[in-house]
Amino acid sequence: MTRTRIALTLTTVSLAGLLGLTACGAGPSTPAAAAADVSDEATVLAQVGFETGLEDDTTPSTAASADAKRHGPGQGTGRRFLRKNTLHGEVTVQTKSGVRTVVVQRGTVTAVSADGVTVKSTDGFAQTWSFGDRLKVRQDRKPAETSAIKAGAQVGVAGLKDGDTATARLIAVK
Predict the structure, then answer these.
(1) What is the β-pairing status of strands 126-139 and 88-95?
(2) Which pTM value belongs to this model?
(3) How far is it, in rounded angstroms, from Cα 68 to Cα 136?
(4) In the prediction, which pLDDT does 34 show?
(5) Domain boundaries, the chain
(6) Integer Cα distance of 63 and 71 in angstroms
(7) What is the pLDDT of residue 80?
(8) Pick from 150, 163, 44: which is nearest to 106 by CA?
(9) Is residue 96 predicted with pLDDT exceeding 80?
């Protein structure tokens, strides 16, 4: 029980910190400019182990090594734990355009339709995600079509939550 609370606290604090940093927005540059509309989602997916190729240069690897240099040895251990063990969560952040609730989930696709996908995490949590207007699908760090999302596939999904509706904006297929 205590380990679960610690893990949940670390997850929330880590995601809040990462999203707080990315909420400032990505400046117009290389892949980040193309991904500016899903930069928060790309960062969150990178932190839970799904590389999309849309992360900006300061997200997981450089930020983790910079943190280790600032805070000393052993500080990267928490990030590695979160990266491997985060199943799902949400964090509310203040951005330039207002308050956003960013949600993330990793798991197995249990159903796919023309307008959404249902994902089940290993703890039994299931979420149905509607496809957003500007959904980006990535497979092997490259753009992919929604047809790459199949039942049984391992995915990472990130998007926005409005009430009870989760809208996928970025899906990474393993």
Answers:
(1) unpaired
(2) 0.64
(3) 32
(4) 42
(5) 2-86, 99-173
(6) 12
(7) 60
(8) 44
(9) yes
Q: What is the pLDDT of residue 91?
A: 84
**3-state SS class at 127:** strand
pLDDT of residue 48: 73
Kindly list the distances between the CA atom of residue 76 and the CA atoms of 2, 89, 169, in Å, as whole numbers in the listed order: 21, 21, 28
Which range, 48-57, 88-97, 107-116, has the best average confidence (pLDDT)? 107-116
**CA separation for the pair 144, 137 (Å, rounded):** 5
Tracing tokens 């983790």 back to the chain, one arrives at 64
Structure tokens belonging to residue 119 = 């994902």
Q: What's the one-letter identity of residue 65?
A: S
Q: Give the integer Cα–Cα distance in Å for 41 and 50.
A: 11
- Selecting from 3.40.30.10, 2.40.50.320, 3.30.360.10, 2.60.40.60, what CATH number does the domain 99-173 have? 2.40.50.320
